[in-house]
Amino acid sequence: MSPTLAIMTVGILVPFIILLVISFWTRDGFGFDTTFTTNNYVRAWSEPIFGALLQRSFWISGVATLVTVLLCYPMAYYVAFHVHRNKMMWIILMTLPFWTSYLLRVFAWKVILGYEGVINSGLMTVGLIDQPLEFLLYSQEAVIITLAHAWAAFAILPLYVSLEKIDKSLLEAATDLGDGPVARFFRITLPLSMPGVIAACFLIFIPTTGDYITPALLGGPDGAMIGNFIQLQFGRVNNWPMGATLSIVLMLWISLIALVFLFITRKAQEKIA
């Protein structure tokens, strides 16, 4: 494990320490004032715009995570329990669209959801609408739809692995004892697949909260997230200390939410058991 730990230390821990140090600096013209100060954290806590962006980011990411898991669970369930041959081929086919560039998929959704995109053109052709739907693009809904599709592969794989490991004899025993398909699912399948559900939630929620590409291209003013503001601080504004501060604050909030989520799911599993 030594080489792996060394790489992780250099690649993750060192940049994090540098980011933490910079967060206690301030911008001084085109340079930095390295005098230790907590003014950036006070500003991040007190200014309403930062709180609003954090709340919006958690909301969009949370909904996208929920939608992704709900859509991917049936696909993973079908492959795990109803496909008996060439399962690997099914997995490859489900994840094949995600082999392309993330940016290309975002642009594809921009074309699909656009004012003259596939959805609006199709609905107008069949006569369901008279004019294009403007809310499809440059909105929170557009960001959620795109994120749910873009990160679907990260939900399918852990869900499939968790469902595949379930002992099928437990389901047979439940059937022999009188459980129907619905009761069998909620009493056995879902609780035993919770590790995959939790892993999928983490793999989607954590990176999407800080995403800035999708909100920048599809979100518009109402769909901007905290990642866009952080990118702005490191880029156009050239206020690296503030960008570092917001990054640290975002990581702390995500860690807190993850711990609360783990606590709630463990308590729920204990009650089910």
Summarize the SSE layout with pairings.
Layout: H1 2-22, E1 26-28, E2 31-33, H2 39-46, H3 48-82, H4 87-95, H5 102-113, H6 118-125, H7 140-150, H8 153-164, H9 168-176, H10 181-192, H11 194-209, H12 213-219, H13 226-234, H14 240-272
Antiparallel strand pairs: 1-2
CATH superfamily: MetI-like
**Mean pLDDT across every amino acid position:** 91
**Helix-strand sequence:** HEEHHHHHHHHHHHHH
The fold-level CATH name is: MetI-like fold
* Biggest beta sheet summary: 2 strands, antiparallel
Description:
With 273 residues, this protein is mostly helical. It has a single domain, classed as MetI-like fold, CATH 1.10.3720.10. Helices cover 74% and strands 2% of the residues. Strands 1-2 form a two-stranded antiparallel ribbon. α3 (48-82) packs antiparallel against α11 (194-209), α5 (102-113) packs parallel to α12 (213-219) and α7 crosses α12 (213-219). The longest helix has 35 residues, at 48-82. It is globular and about 75 Å long. The model has no long low-confidence stretch (mean pLDDT 91).
